[in-house]
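Much of what follows relies on a compact textual record of a protein's fold. A record is reproduced here so that you can trace the correspondence yourselves:

. . .
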Amino acid sequence: MIRNYSLGHPIPFVGRTKELRDVTERLMNPDCRLLTLTGLGGSGKTRLAIEAAHSAAPHFLHGTVFVGLQPLTRSDLLVPTIAQAVGLTFYDEGEMQNQLLDYLHKKQLLLILDNFEHLLDGAALVNNLLAYAPGVKVLATSREALSLQEEWLYPLKGMSTPLSVYAGSLEDYEAVQLFLYHARRVQPNFDMVNESES
């Protein structure tokens, strides 16, 4: 289970079999402490991160925590946002970042930092987390790399598409499968062949 994340009624995970395997393997690799999925907006970074986190869940004793960063406007909000997501209540005395690092120090968890691209000036916090909390791994999604020394990058490209509408079986392509899923949600009997002939 991933804390602080709700897909509502999630769409099925379509395609990306190789990418899911690759990302899951990296998450289980002890040398990979920070993995950043990069790609264009809407390319499926968040969905892949969530699916990989589910696959790797047994390897994280204290679970997975999802931290959505899209609403944040400043990087100084990273510490309180992560603290809230992991369930930390700050006490009055002491610097907030130190309290967060102390709290995470002995945890074994996967921290998903989603939509990091507009907070790159706060990437030093990720470095501090990795240095002070050896059992924490970070899976970030971002349009750009965090440019940290420990960072492993996984660039995500678009889904497979046919070169032509006359290609053999269109339904073998990931992008077409996803399109059909959405089309059939609103028109249950949708058929690409009949639609293209009308």
